[in-house]
Amino acid sequence: MTDEQGILFILSGPSGVGKGTVRKELFNQITDLKYSISMTTRDRRTGEINGVDYFYKTKQEFEHLIEQNQLLEYAQYVNNYYGTPRAYVEETLAAGHDVFLEIEVQGALQVKENFPEGVFIFLFPPSLEELKNRIVDRGTESTDLVLNRLNEAKNEIKQMNAYDYVVVNDQVDVAVTKIQSIIQSEHLKRERIEQQYKKFLEDEIS
């Protein structure tokens, strides 16, 4: 165990901005970050492992955790709950590991309320036109849905003031490099190492 507490990094941004792609490339290059494992009430699929892919809970167990404020954020999709367990994040941070969370904007704002000491990074599209192209290129949404997503993206971009950093995702490798720089600089902040240098000054010289 290290003297230094880990840091919770939250990567967020509008749908279609490339959060998942950036996160995968980041984890291809950095091995000491811990990815925040989500909790869900959906059935476990073939090959999935509890505590690796998700933490699997019953609906009753999940709702009990909501009541106990044991989730940093949660949402409901198609009759199933998904959320970020507080205990896993806090225990991993206490062990000195950085935790990385990739999440939608509304979820990030919930995390901000429950864990304001986290470092919030907003992934920004190069332009709305480029964002539209990325959503269209998925080939999974109708024209109406694309327009709805773009309008929602505009609303989400308005929430940018809640974040600590903004990274434009023009090129994935450049965005990843910038996020790595944010992680490094956060560890160098005076207030994060204050306890360590106080201990250094208290140590007797022999």
UniProtKB/TrEMBL annotation:
InterPro entries from the UniProt entry: GK/Ca_channel_bsu, Guanylate_kin-like_dom, Guanylate_kinase, Guanylate_kinase_CS, P-loop_NTPase
Protein location: Cytoplasm
Entries under Gene3D superfamilies matching the protein: Guanylate Kinase phosphate binding domain, P-loop containing nucleotide triphosphate hydrolases
Binding site for ATP: G13, P14, S15, G16, V17, G18, K19, G20
Chief place of localization: cytoplasm
Pfam families reported in the protein's UniProt record: Guanylate_kin (PF00625)
Keywords linked to the UniProt accession: ATP-binding, Cytoplasm, Kinase, Nucleotide-binding, Transferase
Enzyme Commission code(s) on record: 2.7.4.8
Group of enzyme by EC: transferase
Record's keyword annotation contains Kinase: yes
Catalytic function, reaction form: GMP + ATP = GDP + ADP
One MF term in the entry's GO annotations: GMP kinase activity
SMART domains registered for this protein in UniProt: GuKc (SM00072)
Domain of life assignment: Bacteria
Protein family according to the UniProt entry: Belongs to the guanylate kinase family.
HAMAP family for this protein: Guanylate_kinase
Function: Essential for recycling GMP and indirectly, cGMP.
Name of this chain's protein: Guanylate kinase
Recorded name of the encoding gene: gmk
